[in-house]
Amino acid sequence: QMQLVESGGGSVQSGESLTLSCVASGSSLNFYSVGWFRQAPGKEREAVSCIGGRDGAAYYVDAAEGRFTISRDISKNTFYLQMSSLKVEDTAVYYCVADGAVTRAREMCVTMPYNLLKFRGQGTLVTVSS
Q: How far apart are CA 17 and CA 12, in angstroms?
């Protein structure tokens, strides 16, 4: 059974950067699709970015495109979300996810319901102030 633990959240000013990490334990991330979701106060959870397990291709939602970068280090069993030019509207709890049965990034981020993704972290809070 895989466990995911996020870290790196915190409070920053608008325009600053932050990098989130998600460390997996219990199983290797090799060939797993991985991703980041977020839930802002009073809003539904939404996808941010995902990486396909087979091809390593990344998918970004429009709000993340050009500002966020998802990456993974299989040797460390860890994946990351580098966030730059942060905006107040990026304030949310960020959750990492992993699923070996999902092969494509877009499938994970767009098609699969969050609650059906096999492994999910507990979340890390990012607060962006103006």
A: 8
Q: How many residues does the chain have?
A: 130
The C-alpha torsion from 17 through 21 and 54 to 58, rounded to 10°, is: -10
Return d(Cα 130, Cα 118) in angstroms, integer: 36
Which tokens is 24 given?
Answer: 């997996």
The predicted-structure confidence for 47-74, as pLDDT tens digits, reads as follows: 999 999 999 999 999 999 999 999 999 9
In the chain, beta strands by DSSP E: 3-7, 10-13, 18-25, 33-39, 46-51, 58-60, 68-73, 78-83, 92-99, 119-120, 124-129
pLDDT digits (tens, 9 = 90+) for 73-84: 999 999 999 999
Helix (H, G, I), strand (E, B) or coil at 54: coil
| Cα–Cα distance, 6 to 124 (Å, whole number) | 6
User: Could you tell me if 55 and 67 are in contact, meaning their C-beta atoms sit under 8 angstroms apart?
Assistant: no
pLDDT digits (tens, 9 = 90+) for 3-55: 999 999 999 999 999 999 999 999 999 999 999 999 999 999 999 999 999 99
